[in-house]
Amino acid sequence: MIMRRAVLTYLALSLAAVVILAPYLMSVQTSVKTPRQFAQQPPLAPPRPPTGENYAELTVGGHTLIPPLVITVQVVLVVVLGQLVCSVLAAYAFARLDFPGRDAIFWVYLATLMVPAVAVLVPRFVLLSEAGLVNTFWGIVLPSMFGSPYAIFLLRQFFRAVPQELLDAARIDGAGHPRVLRHVMLPLSRPVLATLLIITAVTHWNDFLWPLVVTSGARWEVLTVAVAGLQSQYQGNWTLVMAATTLATMPLLVLFTIFQKHIVKSITITGMK
Hints:
With 273 residues, the chain is mainly alpha-helical. The chain has a single domain (63-272), classed as Orthogonal Bundle (MetI-like fold). Helices cover 74% and strands 0% of the residues. The chain is built from 14 helices and no strands. It has helices at residues 2-31, 35-40, 53-59, 66-96, 102-111, 121-130, 137-141, 149-161, 164-172, 177-188, 190-205, 209-214, 223-233, 238-272. Helix 11 runs antiparallel to helix 14. The radius of gyration is 23 Å and the shape is globular. The mean pLDDT is 84. Belongs to the binding-protein-dependent transport system permease family.
């Protein structure tokens, strides 16, 4: 009975994995076909022979995605660094500092999670337009680099679960709040920080609407906007579009592969608590 249940579980998980991975694998397979092969062969047929001309066109050819890729990496690095620093400081303040209205401020801030991003799109654009930051690098990153309600909530709950005895021992040794945060809280919260890093990086790597609104032209074009423009410009050349899509998702797979152990550990810690 137990063996049968285990077999059924693994079969269900394998089927789910196939459903999830099939679109990406088909995208990779299509990206190494020529337009003629794509038109003449069945969609699931492997390329005979495979070709790298689509990737060459997107890296060294006339439709290179290297500048948008570089800009996207810069945007993600600045936003991730800003969000982690600001979220850690805010979460520690909400979790371990006593000041008037602390809980009320936290819950009001957390309530902004229910406000759709589209609802604040126009006011945000007007503010940045008045500040002269439209179609600039800082216009892309500033609205997102000062923490997020989800990250602050997750870190606050984790900081509140740290035993008070550890903080008291650090204070007996003469540590103030900066040293407690640096030498006690941050080492304990590495799995949670890794998870937040992944979530923030994926969210802003795939961000499309805000960069599309706040920028124009190719100067500050991010990867998602460049791939969308490529798709509308070469709607019939699906092999080139699939190669661009594959290139856009590969860095995220590498990032997840590097930090997957920390993500699993953070889930384990959350479940134990």
